[in-house]
Amino acid sequence: MNLSFIFIGSTHSFLDDFSKQKEIINTINPEFILSEELEDLKLEQVDQFKEIFEKKFISDMTSFNEVEKLIKLCFEKKIKLIGIDFHNFGFDENLQKKIKNQKKLTREEEEKLNDLVEKREKYHLSKILEYKSKTKLPIIIILGC
How much is the pLDDT for 83? Predict the structure, then answer.
């Protein structure tokens, strides 16, 4: 198999995403996993993994519990886990509260969110291309679906 990228959709804990992620990770054994849920974090060295296990904090938008199994698996397998998004997904405090509480957005907030989604997608792509040049192995990319 000569694949560059393997994309995995994440339901953000609505389903047991990890069991499928683990199966694919164990099959491919990549050097890098790029994850939207890791936001702007990079876990490439043992001390970075240890620090996140100690803090047990990702951001205001992503709980440690959502990504803990993935982080542990990558630590055990010595796979570099790279966040490919903005901190708090780029949401300001107002958007964070509304999204977390599933509140209706105003027209202006909808427009702001749509602009942000486009910026995030472009950023995801730039990070994917950056890491493509750093390895000959396939890269696993986990994005929200």
Answer: 97
Determine how many CB atoms are found less than 10 A away from the CB of residue 46.
10
Buried b / exposed e across 97-132, counting CB within 10 Å, b at 16+?
ebbeeeeeeeeebeebbeebeeebeebbeebbeebe
DSSP 8-state secondary structure symbol assigned to residue 106: P
Which string of DSSP letters, residue by residue, matches 54-85?
HH----SSS-HHHHHHHHHHHHHHT-EEEE-S
User: How does pLDDT run across 47-60, given as a tens digit for each residue?
Assistant: 999 999 999 999 99
Distance of CA 51 to the CA centre of its chain: 18
pLDDT for res 10 = 82
Q: Give the pair of three-digit tokens for residue 71.
A: 């982080």
